[in-house]
Amino acid sequence: VNQIRAGAQIVQVFESNIGELSPEDYDEFILDSLVEIADGIKAVYPDVPIAIFPRKLHFYESLVERSKYDVISVDWTLDLSKARQIVGDKITLQGNLEPCVLFSSDETIRKRTATMLSKAGKTRYISNLGWGMLPDHDPDKLQVFIDA
């Protein structure tokens, strides 16, 4: 909420270790808190889009059903076509090219990016490079990804 008051246009919620939990522990200990965060922000700032990055969460159907997140970021361990089936067109997907792909040839980067885009669907999608650039990535490879 302080970020919104300071002028942030989108509130990112990062849950970096959520994929380490079992579905039962996630439901018991985490889900209600994530729903409460989204509900609390939307109650005060209904027009501010909220994004969540639940790293390695392979069982996020309940998050989609119960929460008010506008964007769900998925990492490269999740199949984007399955994610799109779960969220439909009511939530924006963000993700999910594995950053190490940038160590590949230009042709491989283009191919993997095209595959990613085809799985994401035609609407409500933000292309993203996993966790971002690694220190030893060649910036020219990032441009190949962007152009693709």
Automatic annotation (TrEMBL):
UniProt cross-references to InterPro entries, sorted A to Z: UROD/MetE-like_sf, Uroporphyrinogen_deCOase
Domain Uroporphyrinogen decarboxylase (URO-D): 2-148
GO terms under biological process: heme biosynthetic process
MF GO annotations: uroporphyrinogen decarboxylase activity
Superkingdom assignment: Eukaryota
Coiled coil (residue ranges): none
GO cellular component terms listed in the entry, alphabetical order: cytosol
UniProt-listed PANTHER family: METHYLTETRAHYDROFOLATE:HOMOCYSTEINE METHYLTRANSFERASE RELATED, UROPORPHYRINOGEN DECARBOXYLASE
This protein's name: Uroporphyrinogen decarboxylase (URO-D) domain-containing protein
Organism: Euplotes harpa
Higher taxonomy: Eukaryota, Sar, Alveolata, Ciliophora, Intramacronucleata
